[in-house]
Design goal:
By secondary structure, the protein is of the alpha/beta class. It has 17 helices and 17 strands. It folds into 2 domains: 146 residues, Alpha Horseshoe (Serine Threonine Protein Phosphatase 5, Tetratricopeptide repeat); 198 residues, Glycogen Phosphorylase B (Rossmann fold, 3-Layer(aba) Sandwich). The strands form 3 sheets. Strands 10, 11, 12, 13, 14, 15, 16 and 17 form an 8-stranded mixed β-sheet that branches. Strands 4-3-2-5-6-7-8 form a 7-stranded parallel β-sheet, sandwiched between helices. The two termini are 35 Å apart.
C-alpha cells in the first residue's frame, strides 16, 4: 500500500492548524468562492425573484467578514440596529472573531431592548451565503460576498465598502479583474467616506455613491453615526434600491421530493419552500444526514427540487434534514461496505490507492474515510499522521480535527480536548464540501472506534426505492 501522500512533515511537528491558520484559510475560501461566483455570473446572470414587502418594513440581510479589530464591522452593526429600530426586519450573518465570546449577541447598547436584532455567526466550515434566507435586500460589508450573494438571485445586493479594497494596495491584474467584476455585480455601491470613494474610482473604475452616513475616515466610529435623521436617510436609500431593482415574481414548476425527511431546526421546511419559490436555477440541494457506519452519520448535499426551465447549476440552501435510510451511494461506497463487514484493512488499501488520483474537494471527502478505516484497522499511529496531514491540507474541514482526536485516543497519545473544541467551534461542520460527518464531536466523545463497527452490516438491499432515491448533487 502506498500511503506516502497521507503523511506530512507538518503533521509531526505542528499537529493541527491553529485558530489563526483556520481563520486565514476560511477567509481565503470565501475569496475563492467569490472567484467561482464571478465566473458563473459571466456565463449567466440569473433573474432576481422575490416577494417584496414594500410598503412596510424591509427584510435586510447583512453579510459581515469581521476582519482585524472589527471596528468597521461594528459600525455596520450599529447601522443594522438603527434600521431595525425603524421597523426593518434585520438579520446579520457574520464570520466568527477569534476573541468573540458569544455567537448570538445584540447590536447596540445592552440596556436598550429596541436596538436588538437577529445575529447569526456562521462558522468557517460553512459557506456564508448558503445561510441567506428570502429577503428584500442584501447588504455586503465586504467585496467577496457580493458575487455569491448576487448568484443566489434572491434580492438586490448592495456593497457598503468600508475601506477593505483600499487596504489591499496594488493587486495583480487577474485579481483586479475579479474585484472589478464583483463591484459590477452589485446593484449599488456605497462608500463609507470620501477617501474610499476616490480609491474605488481610481483603482477599479467603480462609481460609488456617498453613504448617507458618510464620515471622515480618520475619525473614530461613533455609536450614533447613523442615529436619527441619518438612519432615516439610510433607510430611504435602501428602499429606493429595492423599488428600482428589476425583480421577477416567484416561480412555480419545481418538482420537490422531501419524503422521509425530518428537520433539525424549527421553520426550516417553510424556509426551504420560500427559497425554492425564489430560485432561478434548475435544481435546489440541501444537506441530508444518513446513517453511515455504526452510530456515525454522514451528510451529503442532495438535490430535492428540480425544474426543466431553470438556469444551469444547483442552488445550495443550508436547511439540515435527516433521513433514516442508510448511506448507499457515496463515491466510496464499496470501501464503506468493507468497513461495515469488518474488512478494515482491505478498505484502507482501496481508499489509499484512490488517494493517488484525486485532489481538492474530492480528496477531502475521501481522506475522512481513509483515516477512519486506519483507526478501525488498528493502524492508529498511521491514522494520526494522516489526519493531521489532511487537517493542514483542508484547514476548513472540521472532520479532520475530530478524526485526529479519535486517532490519538486509539493510539493512546495525548490530545488537547479544549483545542479540539475551539477548532470545531470555529469551523462548525464541513458543509463547504460534498460530504461530511454529522456532528464532528461524535467522533471525539460520543462515538468510539469500537461502536463504529458494532452494528450489523447493512444489506445492499437496505436502500431507497428507485422512486424515493435521494439524488447526489454535483458542484453548482
Amino acid at each position: 500500500m502506498n500511503t506516502a501522500r497521507l503523511s506530512s512533515s507538518k503533521s509531526a511537528s505542528s499537529r493541527l492548524p491553529g485558530l489563526g491558520d483556520i481563520t486565514t484559510a476560511g477567509r481565503l475560501a470565501d475569496i475563492l468562492r467569490a472567484v467561482e461566483s464571478v465566473a458563473c455570473l459571466e456565463a449567466t446572470v440569473p433573474e432576481i425573484r422575490n416577494e417584496r414587502r414594500l410598503p412596510g418594513g424591509l427584510r435586510i440581510v447583512y453579510l459581515l467578514a469581521h476582519r482585524a479589530d472589527g471596528r468597521d464591522e461594528d459600525a455596520m452593526l450599529v447601522q443594522a440596529a438603527a434600521l431595525s429600530v425603524r421597523g426593518a426586519d434585520v438579520l446579520v450573518l457574520s464570520r466568527p472573531r477569534l476573541n468573540q465570546s458569544d455567537t448570538d449577541s445584540d447590536a447596540g447598547a445592552k440596556d436598550d431592548p429596541p436596538r436588538r436584532l437577529r445575529r447569526v455567526v456562521v462558522p468557517f466550515g460553512e459557506v456564508l451565503t448558503d445561510a441567506v434566507p428570502p429577503c428584500d435586500l442584501i447588504v455586503a460589508g465586504s467585496w467577496e460576498y457580493v458575487a455569491p450573494a448576487r448568484l443566489l438571485a434572491i434580492a438586490p445586493v448592495v456593497l457598503f465598502e468600508l475601506g477593505g479594497l483600499q487596504d489591499l494596495g496594488d493587486v495583480p491584474e487577474h485579481t483586479r479583474d475579479v474585484l472589478v467584476a464583483s463591484l459590477r455585480s452589485a446593484t449599488a455601491v456605497y462608500a463609507s467616506c470620501t477617501q474610499v470613494r476616490e480609491a474605488l474610482l481610481t483603482k477599479y473604475g467603480a462609481i460609488a455613491q456617498p453613504s448617507p452616513s458618510e464620515r471622515d475616515c480618520a475619525s473614530p466610529i461613533q455609536p450614533d453615526v447613523v442615529g436619527g435623521r441619518t438612519a432615516e436617510a439610510v433607510q430611504a436609500a435602501y428602499e429606493q434600491v429595492v423599488r428600482s431593482a428589476d425583480v421577477g415574481a416567484p416561480v412555480a414548476g419545481f418538482r420537490v421530493r422531501l419524503g422521509g425527511l425530518t428537520w433539525t431546526r424549527a421553520g426550516d421546511r417553510e424556509l426551504l419552500r420560500q427559497r425554492i419559490g425564489a430560485c432561478s436555477s434548475g435544481a435546489v440541494a440541501i444537506p441530508i444526514s444518513q446513517p453511515a457506519l455504526g452510530s456515525l452519520r454522514a451528510v451529503r448535499w442532495r438535490t430535492v427540487a428540480t425544474r426543466s426551465d431553470g438556469t444551469p447549476g444547483t442552488t445550495r440552501v443550508y436547511v439540515p434534514a435527516r433521513s433514516e435510510r442508510p448511506l448507499h451511494d457515496s463515491p466510496h461506497q464499496h470501501a464503506i461496505e468493507l468497513l461495515r463487514l469488518g474488512h478494515a484493512r482491505r478498505a484502507v488499501d482501496e481508499l489509499a490507492e484512490r488517494c493517488e488520483g484525486v485532489a481538492g474537494g474530492e480528496l477531502a471527502v475521501l481522506g475522512r474515510w481513509v483515516v477512519l478505516a486506519m483507526v478501525l484497522a488498528d493502524m492508529a499511529d498511521r491514522a494520526v499522521e494522516a489526519a493531521e496531514a489532511f487537517a493542514w491540507e483542508f484547514p476548513t474541514n472540521p472532520d479532520f480535527v475530530a478524526l485526529s482526536a479519535l486517532a490519538r485516543r486509539a493510539a493512546s497519545r495525548p490530545y488537547d480536548l479544549t483545542g479540539v473544541d475551539d477548532r470545531i467551534a470555529l469551523l462548525g461542520v464541513g458543509a463547504r464540501f460534498d460530504e461530511w460527518f454529522d456532528h464532528p464531536w461524535s467522533l471525539v466523545l460520543g462515538t468510539s472506534w469500537e461502536t463504529l463497527s458494532s452494528r450489523e452490516p447493512l444489506s445492499s438491499r437496505e436502500t431507497l426505492s428507485s422512486r424515493e432515491t435521494l439524488s447526489s448533487r454535483g458542484d453548482p
